[in-house]
Amino acid sequence: MRSIYGGTLNASHIDQEVTLCGWVDTRRDHGGVIFIDLRDREGIVQVVFDPDGQDDFSRAERVRSEFVLQVKGKVRARSAETVNSNMATGEIEVYGTELEILNESAPVPFQMDEYTNVGEDVRLKYRYLDLRRDEMQNNLRLRSKVTTAIRNYLDDNGFLDIETPILTRATPEGARDYLVPSRTHDGKFFALPQSPQLFKQLLMVSGFDRYYQIAKCFRDEDLRADRQPEFTQIDLETSFMSEEEIMAVTEGMIRKLFQEIKGVDLGDFPRMPFAEAMEKYGSDKPDLRLPQQLVEIKDLLKDIEFKVFAGPANDPSCRVTALKVDGGAQLSRKQIDEYTKFVSIYGAKGLAWIKVNEIEKGIEGLQSPIIKFLGDEVTMAVMERTGAKNGDIVFFGADKAKVVSEALGALRCKLGEDLDLYTSEWAPLWVVDFPMFEEIDGGWTALHHPFTAPSCTPEELKANPGTALSQAYDMVLNGTELGGGSVRIHRQDMQQTVFEILGIEEAEQEEKFGFLLDALKYGAPPHGGLAFGLDRLIMLMTDSSSIRDVIAFPKTQTAACVMTDAPGAVNTLQLNELNIRLKQKEKPAEE
Amino acid sequence: MRSIYGGTLNASHIDQEVTLCGWVDTRRDHGGVIFIDLRDREGIVQVVFDPDGQDDFSRAERVRSEFVLQVKGKVRARSAETVNSNMATGEIEVYGTELEILNESAPVPFQMDEYTNVGEDVRLKYRYLDLRRDEMQNNLRLRSKVTTAIRNYLDDNGFLDIETPILTRATPEGARDYLVPSRTHDGKFFALPQSPQLFKQLLMVSGFDRYYQIAKCFRDEDLRADRQPEFTQIDLETSFMSEEEIMAVTEGMIRKLFQEIKGVDLGDFPRMPFAEAMEKYGSDKPDLRLPQQLVEIKDLLKDIEFKVFAGPANDPSCRVTALKVDGGAQLSRKQIDEYTKFVSIYGAKGLAWIKVNEIEKGIEGLQSPIIKFLGDEVTMAVMERTGAKNGDIVFFGADKAKVVSEALGALRCKLGEDLDLYTSEWAPLWVVDFPMFEEIDGGWTALHHPFTAPSCTPEELKANPGTALSQAYDMVLNGTELGGGSVRIHRQDMQQTVFEILGIEEAEQEEKFGFLLDALKYGAPPHGGLAFGLDRLIMLMTDSSSIRDVIAFPKTQTAACVMTDAPGAVNTLQLNELNIRLKQKEKPAEE
After folding, report:
1. Residues B70-82: tens digit of each pLDDT
2. How far apart are CA B39 and CA B65, in angstroms?
3. Structural domain span for residue B254
4. pLDDT tens-place string over residues B493-530
5. Which residue is closest to B557 within chain A, CA to CA?
6. Alpha carbon separation from B346 to B286, B321, B323, B406 (Å, rounded)
7. Which residue in chain A has the smallest CA separation from B516?
8. I need a labelling partner for A128 at 20 to 30 A (CA). Which of A361, B105, B173, B409 fits?
9. Is residue B538 a part of any domain in this protein?
């Protein structure tokens, strides 16, 4: 029906007869001549209809926005004054000779170029129209390119694409599962997988050696801006590879991807131990596009009288840090108040600051309500350690370590964005040497999942669970966790040690992971892997602010699809077959 | 950890030092020397340990089946008398110098080579062991190769890989949906998709032009041998392509696949109208590896007295056919009785037959209980029309058209298999020109789905729904439907006409397909597509008899996973969150 995509036409096609199919992007009538901007997947081209060709011209007069057309015509150069250098096809136009209206269109509920004026709900209700917009077309095309490139890379590296079940058993990730009632097993439920974790480990036990899958995963969580009930993971697992080798092959994948798709060389990814990331950036996913670091000043403030600082400075569970922000002296009192409110989200009780106006004047050149509490000497020592110069501001955090790290870590990123302090466009890194466990309410919880291998023996682990490190690794790009993984436990004794430390009783082990423990008995190879969040990767690559802009048919924040009206009501017959019923609402007491 | 896969070693590696990782397939002790067959993904290689190397030898003595080893050693030629030509690595062996036991294995519940002796339930319970078998390894590797090849082909042809939702609204395919209770929308349910049908049509409305997805689909059906609750579809859709063009691009895909993966040239696929397929093969998915056809003999039997044939021969709703089977005269009376039972499954009330012993003797050379009812002349006319020769048998079917087609169509395949009458290994074809509707209980039902475009105008369709043909096409290979699709309806008036003929009221249209009907209003392009069943394709390519042999973690026939014990019980807290409860079992009346 079409000889070529109209959006690909250029001067090299001049004088060719072409048949195009597409949508009317705009239609203008200039002195009796009809100009149609015809849109297809590849772009837009101008088609011109003169009043000469009788029937076809009258049809051209009749067309309106979003009509679907088949056009035959000849490509010709535009006159010099009508060349449009903003259009890829702007040097040429198609002189139309035949026009077929393949379908009409009612007036659309919103114009493509006015989408920002309609609410997102309207865009989601008419998703098929919203997807016609350039931005959405580009996002989903890039997504397709990315998955293709990833698959090719993994295929070239000997990974096998193996599907794991969607109807499965509750997974141990800990978030809420989506459940599916079983009709054939009375009162029982499948769970949709939160990840293929256990299945991919079993595939290693089976000897497939290298597995990958671009896998749908599900979590019935309360949705935040960047979450969806179903999301997509680039999931992989390998046997007989060390932590280093796994990191090398996956780093190679992301580097190749950025080269191929974005023409960007990410270079070698630096490694950073978890402890260093927390110390310098207050985050386990530091955004290294920002050079600012948290600077420890605990030692400087131990002996001052000001309790707000001296207290934490003398408490081992606290940290006291400074964050120097380039050019921050320009911030107004009101802006600083806003940032004070911002850090309070993370539990910070205040936000002390010093503005550096004329450092060469010493203490006189600084401006701050807290200098009098710190004293001149300490103040100047802090200035020196942070390297503050004229025009900068130095913020302070002094509280429990977790509060300071989170508050100043977040403030660092927020100020970086607000003041545009980025010094590079892309900043990848690996965060490594995670602790195995964190202490929560007096018990140990796995920092990753309970299948993560430690860097030590079972005996050492049991002796010092609090300081043991794991063989886990996270890939971070621009402050976003792109993916994470670990070498897994492949020996049953180690797996049981970890379960014991986590306080998972034998009955619960058997009930939840019996099949995995069984599998470890029969010659499980050393193995490990990684999972990348595809949606987030695409968000980064397309610079999208919402996950919904990189998914064809996303759910709203209440986990609904306003287009298809899902979830929907079902009838009693269906529920009866499943042997379930809806819980009766409690009726308001009568009288 | 490994320098090379042991299974890839051959004479070209002689004298190389290698490090291998893998499983102990077998371990033998010959005169103090230990021979280990070490297995990895690529195959098996023999490793030899002499009593020389102290520690390593004692470890080699200790290893048992399915232990996981890391072996260092040197590749050397086997002596002429020990070369094993049945093994890919049979010319060489590895002289082991170091051995590390990476993991031990308890005695496995069944030996790899004894899997046929254990029930399938045991194999499924220990699926991770069952998957170590060559057959399963090969099946899943081929599956991975197939999906990779398909993706590459579709990518090369401009198809975009776009994901559609798994949590969605009930789909109109008509089978039972799997339901997922929503926690955030009280009393409402998502449905798992039976196919991405409506979403892919909407993607065409959005202008993506060519879409594909290797998509999980779900049906809560009573399971037959070749069904699974979740199955995988190669799903695609295109815009602005005719039926012919869609068939060409998908035929090209399957042809390329067979060339690449199997080294088989399938050639051009013949086309066969549905009516011809039913007439000649009694099936809409004829197995053309078998040359036998059903031969119409209605005209010959109209005037005989024998009511069993004359009745149907004079009834327009019946058909009377003969099926000649080469070499069938060898069948015993007992065997024929078995086939009579077989056709009774399809409703046939009997199975008349004539054996051809010496056709040159005329009626004397035939053997049959029915010749006396047919009369000599009619009998010989039937023999002539079927072309029966010495050693053949001719079966008869005379009943309602549907019964005869199904019974003799199935008998044709069964006899073809039993007597090995195949004349080719691969026989693909397209079945085309399907009727739009079939009459069931006095109403019209869509033969494909209600979005299939007819080959005529809405007016013509309304006037003659019974004879209207659709633009649907099925790809058939060796008697299996590989895939099916159609040009879709892209105009709203046509879609509504079809809904009217199907008796779907406006309220129901709106309720079920409102968003599709809406989308057709706003410039839907002409579009059409196809879906292939991936599991069946892999079954054919690997010559597997069970769909469970081409899926890594399949469900049993009662839709359960005996390995993970899914579906499982859930606690009341979870049910409360979902606002559902289990239906009370009716208690047996007391007393």
Report:
1. 999 999 999 999 9
2. 11
3. 134-267+532-550
4. 999 899 999 998 888 888 888 899 899 999 999 999 99
5. A184
6. 17, 15, 16, 6
7. A564
8. B173
9. yes
